[in-house]
Amino acid sequence: MEGYKASETGQNLEQVIYKIKLPGPAILGERKPENQNHAIIFTRGEGLQTIDMNQDNYIEEALKMRNFLQEFRKKLDDVRYPMILGLREHIFTGSVSSLAWFMSNQETSFVTIGQRLLAKPLK
Which intervals hold domain Glycosyl transferase (predicted)? Predict the structure, then answer.
């Protein structure tokens, strides 16, 4: 019965399957980081990839993934592998306006600095 509300049909169509206790208010800050924080409780294993909702998945991004995953392999000489690894996105809207150009350059700078700093944070 698409398009009808529960009150119009007299049926309760919503059903609670699983409840998750949140550590605070549902929307405390920005929506994107809050969604990523919420998704962490559903993860399994040691690796987690988060991508932007507007990030394009084209062939060049897929080619980076093999090299990206090699960074997390155990090294033979007991060198610590990185805990956080950031790859820059290709922002194809940088030429639309001056604001888009600024945001594109900001993304490049942020990821480059963040990657260099977080790769070996305590050295």
Answer: 5-120
